[in-house]
Amino acid sequence: MRTLPALDLTSEQQQRLAELVEQVLHNCPGQTEFRYVSYIRGHLTVRSELGFASAAFAAAGGKAVHLRNLPQFDDVERSKILCLLLGEAIGTAVAYAEYNHSYITDIRPTTLSEEKSSGLELLSMHNDLAWANDNCRPRTLVLVPHIATGEVPKTLLAPALDILDLLSEKTKEVLRRPWFEARSGSALTWGYERVRRMELLVEAEGQPPVLRLNFGTFTPAANLGAEDTERAVRAQEELGQAALEVGRRLGIAIQKGESLLVPNDHCMHGRDTIEPGTCERLLLRSYVLPDGVAACHGSSLVQLSS
Questions:
Q1: Are strands 194-198 and 65-68 parallel, antiparallel or unpaired?
Q2: In terms of Cα–Cα distance, which of 164, 174, 141 is closest to 265?
Q3: pLDDT grade, residue 189 (50/70/90)?
Q4: Contact 120/273 with Cβ under 8 angstroms?
Q5: Residue among 267, 262, 286 nearest 65 (CA)
Q6: Which residue, among 234, 92, 276, 248, has the nearest Cα to 156 in the 3D structure?
Q7: Claim: this prediction has a pTM higher than 0.85
Q8: How far is CA 7 from the centre of its chain?
Q9: Residue 83's beta-bridge partner residues?
Q10: Would you say 138 and 289 are in contact if contact means Cβ atoms under 8 Å apart?
Q11: pLDDT tens digits for 247-261?
Q12: Distance (Å, whole) CA 211 – CA 231
């Protein structure tokens, strides 16, 4: 059975990471994420200081990396900085102008949010903002629990390579075709819906495959014939079922003092059901772009409409 790569920090690495968190907080008393990010980029050398994180992520081959033995904090601001430091170690942490407006998103059961991750039911397998263009789609998710007590649900993780092992060649052939429409924007601040025609499986030599799913965003293209529409529907259903099977097998109930570095294009993710009253969980998420992609925007506040 395949497993996900894991890295246990040494006591020296843990201590140095804690020192970096304290340094950022001390020098940014305003406690805003933008100031944290600006200080990290202007005054720290996290690529060399936290080279263990970037090395583990680069070697993972499209799988999520499970970091353990991280420093733990009671103050949520310190946990935010920890999440941003890990993100900046492997790329450029970004915020999305039409989506979350923030470098950190809090993921927790709450009635105050419309995000699908704020509920208690099964969070189906997906890639975040999978419909977005290559020049703005988040390529990596950094997940850091600030609170994780009781029966913590699994974060479901399904690398594309493992999903493809469960799919027939006929299904994969359909997924490779641009037979699907991604409808997006109605829940953002664009004011109108956009339709983009796409394939759900992209394979490039020497790279992990890309698979795409996102909460019903993708549907068979409007001009497909009846037979091809049926094939597209069936292939998409099989993709979702395979992703959930792998996700449940490889899922991890990440605890405080741990983190997941998830390659968004190459590894679908979700969350198991949460039984009311059995756990308390606050998960922090940062989106990360490759440096070269982020540099094209001139700012780390990224426009999804670009």
A1: unpaired
A2: 141
A3: low
A4: yes
A5: 262
A6: 248
A7: yes
A8: 18
A9: none
A10: yes
A11: 999 999 999 999 999
A12: 17
